[in-house]
Amino acid sequence: MARIFITGSAGGLGLNAARALMQQGHEVVLHARNESRLADAGAVRDQALGTVFGDLADVAETVRVAEQADQYGPFDAVIHNAGVYSGSQIFSVNTVAPYILTALMTRPRRVVYVSSGMHRSGTPDVQGIDWTNAARRPAAYSDSKLYVTTLSAAVATRWPDVESNAVDPGWVPTRMGGSGAPDDLELGHVTQVWLATREAADAPVSGGYWFHQQRRQPHPAVNDAAFQAELLQALERHTGFALGPK
Known about the structure:
The protein is an alpha/beta fold. The protein contains 7 helices and 8 strands; from the N terminus they run βαβαβαβαβαβαββα. It has an 8-stranded mixed beta sheet with strand order 3-2-1-4-5-6-7-8, sandwiched between helices. Strand 7 and strand 8 form a beta hairpin. Helix 5 packs across helix 7. It is globular.
């Protein structure tokens, strides 16, 4: 039995992942922006090991999320699922928050970052970026997912004792993806769950970018050591928190 923390688990892929993990007998800690967001979680909330609240668009609240979550830890896995597709908070939620939680929480055995196939359209350039406002960045969503995919690869390199992977869940019909999204919602959470709970005897996997349990090639910048270092430096300057050494 594993203990797992999932951000953005009030609905969509996060809630589906939580439900699947609980059905497998694992302990799950849920996260939502506020308590009212979990109103529709029903039995999943009732069966959860605990709940954590905080707005991941706000640095101070994200720090509190890390503190709250650690009270239930240490975790076998953390799934960084929370994300937004539009608005000024794209970088704050999609990139900055996963970085802060990774830097501050007690290291789990595994981390899974939810990416997107759109990360391949991102631009590997963080010079002059405003992490708090994506309004003037035309490809902000793609950029944010390129950054979080790169963060996943950087964690795998820096922390060899932690399995770190990124997942493309497909374009699925969630609140964020929209009702017309063409991919299978039921498959959207499967790879995250698998990566978080693989058998201990299985060969370790880390630094991968996955789509439906198949390893895929990400944007070339993801595994570029120079860009990884540039991204981590920019996030450390913005947040004041450093990703710890090996």
